[in-house]
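Job type: complex structure
Entries:
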Amino acid sequence: MKIIAAIILTGFLAYVVGVYGTLPWWSFVITSLIVAVAIHQRPGKAFLTGFAGVFLLWAGMALIKDAANEHILATKVAQVLPLGGSYLVLILLTGIIGGLVSGLAALTGTYLRK
Amino acid sequence: MRVVPFIVSGLVTAGLVTVLNMQLPAGPSKTPRLGYFLSPQSGFWQNAEPVNTSFNGELKLPGLKGKADVYIDDRLVPHVYADNDLDAYYIQGYLHAKFRLWQMEFQTHVAAGRLSEIVGADKLPIDRMFRRLGMVYGAEQTMANMEKNPEMKATVQAYSDGVNAYINALKPEEIPFEYKLLDYKPEAWTPLKTYLFLMYMSYDLTGRGAVTDLSMTNAKNYFGFADFDKLYPNVEDSLDPIIPIGTRYGKPSIVPKAPKNVDSGYLNSTATATTAMLPEAPDKDNGSNNWAVSGTKTKSGRPILCNDPHLGLNLPSLWYEMQINTPSHNTYGASFPGSPAVIIGFNDSIAWGVTNAGRDVIDYYNIQFRDSTLSEYMFKGVWTKADHRQEIIKIKGKPDLVENIAVTVFGPVMYDRAYKNASTEGKYLAIHWTAHIAGKGLETFYQLNRAKNYNDYLNAIANWSCPGQNFAFASKSGDIAIKQQGAFIARWKRQGDFIMPGADSSYMWQGVIPENENPMIKNPVRGFVSSANQMSTDSTYPYYLGAANSFPLYRGIIINRKLSAMNNITAEDMQHMQMENYNVFAEMARPLMLRYLDESALTTDEKKYVDILKSWNLRGDYTEKGATVFKCMWDSLEVGTWGDEMQKSKLPFPKPDASTLLESLLRDSAWKFVDNINTPDKKETLRDIMLLACQKACKNLKYLETENKLEWGKLKDTQVRHLLQIPALSRLHLPIGGGENMINATKDVHGPSWRMIVHLTDEIEAYGVYPGGQSGNPGSKYYDTFIDSWAAGKYYRILFLQKGTAEKNERIKWHMSFTNS
């Protein structure tokens, strides 16, 4: 249960610091780290928690934006980047990039505690 | 705390964030900052506009005087109803910014030579070119002049305020997609940017002179004037000018005198040899068609006006459709994001359309400086002080570059020792361009928007200076007219076709042709007026129009032929005519080619292609193979005749016109350039050259056939490119025919950028389409909505609504209200 609470908290806080477009996109590094300090877990689990929290947030938001847009922009961006024009790959990549940064931040946080 | 793992994982995190937060090199360009770009809360996902977006809104903005309503129709065209004119332009600025912000800023950055600032050092050649052309200088001159007129000053200011009202309310995550891709931010809009944009249009429509004067000088020096005059003549046998042949012209009020030493010091002088070339030049075919037919030729008895300006085909489109309604006027048409007012359109009383005049308004003068400080130059026998202008070019990630430009009595010294290539060493060329002379450009459109009749139209365009345009006109009251208007220099023959001596004042411009002596015609007997960038008059016009190779010949012929033959014309007939793919040049050239082709010397394979050419219907429709065969054979014939002469020189020359080759060969099949000068022991005849050209073309055709590109449309491959030329943001391989010398002048990346037909019935019946969409956002479904219709030759019926009827119209989908905050 602890892990689920941590994932939800990680995602929620990442969302909150992202609401204000004036803060840099990586502001969730701080919140994910704090969550890992506050809800202490073993390093592997902490990384997974941090990863999952922002992966779900970013991929989920991208999915919602993309569905409402009927894939118009994602298909174009997936050609520019290039990802073969696949909006699904682009959504996954979005989640993975956010997740990786958050997971590493959480890992750092968990080492801070022990 | 576990120190070592903490430090390691902290560093990895910081490292990853750093990498994701920087632009990484990717080939010649750079990636966006990936973390930022992909972040759904700040990056590109925010630009993925929901397909069912509502554009309703209640806006309270500072600076508005009254109340305004904007009704937006199903094509996302806004219909603006404002209490007063300034509010209307404020709202126009706001709407342009809302839908086209990135494009309007980018275009003005191009004009101002500021691309290096946002893209990087590889755009430096383009930036330096625009700085040295005096683009900012020209925009400043025009702005200073326009601001003397309080009405115009307030108009441009209100527009600017509207743009800024939008920018100021823009949240960081809402900035347009391309800013995120290139990683920069919008800056405040200023009135100068509007003038920079208009300066860009001057460049696009007259700037070719900055290249042709140099390449023509090269060609003249290389061939000698006599041969030059054969390759680049000033006569066109089949010319059908804008003003009908036989029209009588009054006595000219200026009779320019050629300098005494014009032969030795200019036409036959090679002192000004140069290969200096700009990194790019506007498309030769920046042209257009317009015509108006009078009620005597239409089914309804009312005039119809048509216009399709041919420009680079880009996304977001150069044009933005809208209606502006205030107590002073009710106007609809295509506007320029970046400028107030409607540029091509109609109002309750009249319609107007423009094509490019193509007259030479750029000259070079060879300047002799006293020393390398460029502080004094020789003029009229004395050392004269030069002004200086500093242009600071900011470069992304690098120190600034400062351009120090001397300014002479003619204008800025474009080429000097800091801006040269090997062979311009020691040459100083000042550029003299009518776009540098303070104009009143915008005032013309401002007044046309409000014009009620022929006299208003004449007054509106009287002060138009650059770029020279053919203004077609039609009114509900039944008048049609066309006038070629601009600040045109009264030139002696060949003045300014080549670089001129700068020290001798007898080579200076001797005056601008008075506007009432410019070519014009009202209600001609033939019942129509038209223009297609051809020479505006026959040779009885008392002024020199400029080198003939600036003027395409054939679209004008087919337009006039068709209009002469038509009667009971409807708007639908005009739609078909704008999409006409008949090639009148091929009609004249094919018989000549076949007459001199020795078919008995051809192989079976080659005969097959010649048969395609013979049975071709002379149309450039998408699936026509004959158009491809014709194009390949004609191109080979051109190479076969003058290619040998051209290859002998390393200097860049202008390509002689196809019409010159055709008309020269029709006159004399033993034309001087037919002989291949690489075979001194043999004198080739036209039959020899034609056979070789055919054989060479057939090899190419065979290759095209294996590539499945024998169909004309596939070979031509029309596309509408994003301004950054990113394929994913462009529309490629469009199913449309047409091309050079056809009324439907759609080439690969160039063609009709706005097609408009206005039938001046009591309730105006108008049609329009452009290859783009009202939204500039690649993430909007309105980004490229019109392209398929445009390619198919389909038009939209324009919704032109009187005040009070808009809210009830079934095609109106959204409503925005504007009030002062």
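Summary: Chain A touches chain B at residues 15, 18-19, 21-22, 24-26, 29, 43, 57-58, 61-62, 65-66, 68-70, 72-74, 76-77, 79-81, 85, 93-94, 97-98, 100-101, 104-105, 107-108, 111-114 (CB under 8 Å). Chain A has one domain: 2-113.
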